[in-house]
Amino acid sequence: MPKLSVCILTKDDADTVAGAIASARFADEVVVVDNGSSDRTVEIATALGVRVVHISAIGFGEMRARAADACSNEWVLSLDPDERCTPEVRDEMVALLAAGPPHDAYRVARRNYMMGRWIKGSGWYPSYRGVQLFRKGRMRYTPDVTHEGFELVGDGTVGKLEHEILHFPYRNLEELVYKVNF
User: Fold this and answer.
1) Residue 13 has pLDDT above 90, yes or no
2) How many CB atoms lie within 10 A of CB 68?
3) What distance in Å separates the CA atoms of residue 125 and residue 117, rounded to the nearest whole number?
4) Fewest CB within 10 angstroms: 57, 73, 88, 104, which?
5) In whole angstroms, what separates CA 58 from the centre of its chain?
6) Under the phi-then-psi rule, with left for phi > 0, alpha for psi from -120 to 50, and beta for the rest, what region is 169?
7) Cα–Cα distance measured from residue 148 to residue 162, given in angstroms and rounded to the nearest whole number
8) How far apart (Å, rounded) are the C-alpha atoms in residues 135 and 152?
9) Which residues are 118's β-sheet partners?
10) What is the per-residue pLDDT across 67-111, written as a single tens digit (0 to 9) for each?
11) Which residues, in sequence order, are CB contacts of 146 under 8 Å at separation 6+?
């Protein structure tokens, strides 16, 4: 069975990184790729026993590409620190890899939790962020600064997983406004 790496991109995510790591423990490797945190993010990840790689990148496209390069396994799941793998999506990925995936990349639906409730529409459910599960060397990120894109290498195809990950993007309205302005 092919092995799976989970890479988690961080910058000042001390409040969320432990939850992302805990939800990814099923993988053969968990790598936290940190882009200059000044809080306890790196300390927390190190204490949890995952490999931490330090990078300096300007945009998300470059960060995700370098994070994938830092992974040592054939398959990579890109997870943000505010995302959580559910047991259902975990089981689906494990079964998919065991059976031999028919696609080179997979989109994964996200269920968004915002301001005390699960969002059920308005384009926020289900929401997708490019591809999150992919075979290394068969997909590459575009160097966009925000909302990175991707390109398949060769004649590969993109599939969709049936199950979702949980996404906790904003704790409050202040954080939403800050991220929009950023």
Assistant:
1) yes
2) 20
3) 12
4) 88
5) 18
6) alpha
7) 23
8) 10
9) 113
10) 999 999 999 999 999 999 999 999 999 999 999 999 999 999 999
11) 59, 60
The model's pTM is 0.91
C-alpha 91/C-alpha 87 separation (Å) is 6
Quick check: 55 and 95 in contact, CB under 8 A? no
E-strand spans in 25-69? 29-34, 51-54
Residues 6 or more apart in contact with residue 123 via CB below 8 angstroms: none
Q: For residue 10, with 0-12 CB atoms within 10 Å meaning exposed, 13-18 middle and 19 or more buried, which class applies?
A: buried
The 10 Å Cβ neighbour count of residue 14 is 17
Q: Which two tokens stand for residue 95?
A: 């079964």
Residue type, 18: A
Helical (H) or strand (E) element with 122 = none
Give the number of other CB atoms < 10 A from CB of residue 22. Answer: 12
